[in-house]
Amino acid sequence: MSKQDTIAAEGAVYYLFGATGDLARRKLFPALFSLYKEGKLAEDFAVVGLARRPRTNEQFRVDLQESIDEFCRYKADDAEQWARFASHFVYMSLDINNVDGFRELGRLTQELDAKFDIPGNRLFYLALAPELFGPVSFNLRDGGMLESRGWNRLVIEKPFGYDLESARKLNAQLSQVFKEEEIYRIDHYLGKEMVQNIQVLRFSNAFFEPLWNNKHIANVQITLSETVGVEERGGYYDKSGALRDMVQNHMMQMLAMIAMEPPSRLHPEDLRDEKVKALRSLRPFASSEEVGANVIRGQYSDGETNGKPLSGYRQEDSVNPQSATETYFAARVYLDNFRWAGVPFYIRTGKRLPVKTTEIVIEFKNVPDNILFAHRHDLAPNLLVIRVNPMEGIYIKINAKKPGVDNVVQPVSMEFCQSCMIGINTPEAYERLIYDAARGESTYFTRWDEVAQAWSFVDRIAEAWREDDSSLQFYPAGSWGPARTEALLAENGFHWWPVNGQAEDNVIWISGGPK
Ligand code: BG6
Fold it and tell me: 4-157 domain in CATH 3.40.50.300?
């Protein structure tokens, strides 16, 4: 059941596995503090940091403080507030392969329940490699950690497996211990304000919903571009690549939100039912030739950005110097259903591209070309652009008459820039997702059947690539990817619309324009 009306999450013990890692420092600690500041965490909670490394509670609280100073949008009002918040955090060194440690964790938990008046609820957050999800779950069960009178929830990070087969095995392990409704699989894109806004924009505007189909939409373009390279994650990324790191999850989820039918109720299962239906409609690639014709696989080579030289992917730390891993992915995909038949969806994502941005462009079909002002056959199509990240908002591009006697049509963009008004990503994706998990609201977590469906789609691409290494194309770091990416759209008479700050010259902006 969704408990959307609850303001403060129910009291619980939060177990952060991987508490000394990067995710905890950058995202999870700041999210917990923000929730606390906003009263979404009352005083009846405790956080147990867990990792192998020995650490005292005091050292752990120093880590906490440093993380919040650096990454949190809130600061403590005073020392007293900080001390109160920090007192909820304790650390325990744990060997996750040793069940005795879990029994000890049980004893610590009883103390915390009593100290903070916690009603036996447990939230296990696994910021760990996926191969550890199974062993940790078994030891939680065998160590007696799941026998309290409250609820148990398991929150896990991506990647959920490496392909469909490994994901199935992983799921089979988890489901020996947890029920599906107790498992919260994070895709942090679903926690983003504008991704959640897609269903509101679509289903509460008479402007859009009647046109949201193949009669009126020419194509959809989803771009998730990053300027960063693989940084210190070469070891993980080299085995994963853009297909598994971004496409199987974030890209598929955004596509599903754009393509799904309206859910009949505002209930987590209904939204997820619609998303999985949309994913099931994706036309699978039938052969390696089809993959070759519709999918582009790129890797960055040496390049530069703003005059600063950038080295190629193969020179990055922990990356195989002969690696064929893709750091860029673009594809043309189709959904074979009534609403979308014939409409290409172009999706692209990559590292070391010129800008950091996530945008979804809906390009509408043009009006007939024979009306008065369109006599020059140069009408620009209408666009709806959803800006997900880092800027948040939407704009629409329409045609209007240029003032004067010449009957000239002028494209005009009207913008609603949400982030200009209330600040970027407020609240942060992780904040919302932790809060949702803590109150049993699972709408924006991925269900097993969605994950499996997304794997079965991307597995075919991975398989085709395994058969044919020559499909890898190189692009200079700091560029927009392999040249063929343009051809993918040109073949259908389209082109990529400029994203983030690369507005076309001839467009008048009603409010500011892209930043
Ligand atoms: C993560 C990927 O899931 O998403 C990273 O593992 C990527 O490789 C990140 O950099 C991008 O997220 P965001 O929110 O910065 O767009």
Answer: no
